[in-house]
Write a structure and sequence with these properties.
Rossmann fold; 39% helix; globular; 243 residues; eight-stranded mixed sheet; alpha/beta
Length: 243
């Protein structure tokens, strides 16, 4: 079953994708990139549903006053004649995301999505999160905020600025990065050290010759087929053991 839904309380939209079976299921919250809930993220949700998981892809930007954000900006940034102007447009569009109030709204919406799933007939009580870019960052955040989260899989997401916040995580975490996404890749060993020192389960993978957004097969400039396929296999194995 595939359908558009609304998460109660804040009443924001999401996309629900369920396997055909009627069993109680482990569930996954899918958090989108900065491009929002688009067809690519819905396709990712469907892929996980095809593997037997209930998936809810949230639309966290639906009622936010953000500038126009789409992948056309990326194409402009790769054009030397348009790069400077494109960077200005990107910064302007993303400015509202830098406020503490924005972060609080995102965290509230994710908490609502978690509680919504727990109370559905399809839920077996295990709910985890998988997110990409912006969604990867908030996959870390939900793991910090929700002590009963079953698992977290951040794809090229930022950990919190205060890495000590990671000590609050109770669930296993599997993180993915591209080697050329240098800031995030260099942060991964620091995260690992803190998690290990606090007996937290954390594994990360850094793919060589790979940059940001490598899993997005609709982004021809960033997609890396070999890295994406390996990450997919690793995620499914991880879920088999943790979900």
């Amino acid at each position: 079953m595939k359908k558009d839904i609304n998460i109660p309380q804040t009443n924001y939209p999401a996309y629900l994708s369920l396997p055909d079976n009627k069993e109680k299921l482990s569930s996954i919250i899918i958090i989108h990139e900065i491009w929002g809930l688009n067809d690519h993220i819905k396709d990712v949700a469907d892929r996980f549903a095809n593997q037997g998981y209930a998936t809810v892809a949230v639309d966290l930007f639906s009622d936010e006053n953000l500038g126009k954000i789409d992948q056309s900006i990326l194409l402009e940034m790769q054009d030397p004649n348009k790069k400077d102007e494109a960077q200005k447009k990107m910064r302007l569009a993303l400015t509202p995301m830098n406020s503490p109030e924005f972060s609080e709204r995102m965290r509230k919406k994710l908490k609502e999505a978690y509680e919504y799933i727990l109370n559905q007939d399809f839920s077996n009580g295990k709910v985890g999160v998988i997110g990409f870019c912006f969604g990867g960052t908030y996959s870390y955040q939900l793991a910090i905020d929700e002590p009963n989260l079953a698992f977290s899989v951040p794809f090229y997401g930022h950990a919190p600025k205060d890495l000590n916040e990671l000590k609050k995580i109770n669930c296993p975490v599997l993180a993915f990065y591209g080697e050329e996404d240098t800031q995030l890749a260099e942060e991964a060993p620091k995260i690992k050290e803190i998690m290990d020192n606090n007996n937290k389960e954390f594994e990360y993978v850094i793919y060589p010759n790979t940059g940001h957004a490598f899993f997005n097969d609709t982004n021809k400039n960033m997609y890396r087929k070999e890295s994406a396929e390996d990450a997919w296999k690793r995620v499914l194995e991880f879920l088999k053991n943790k979900a």
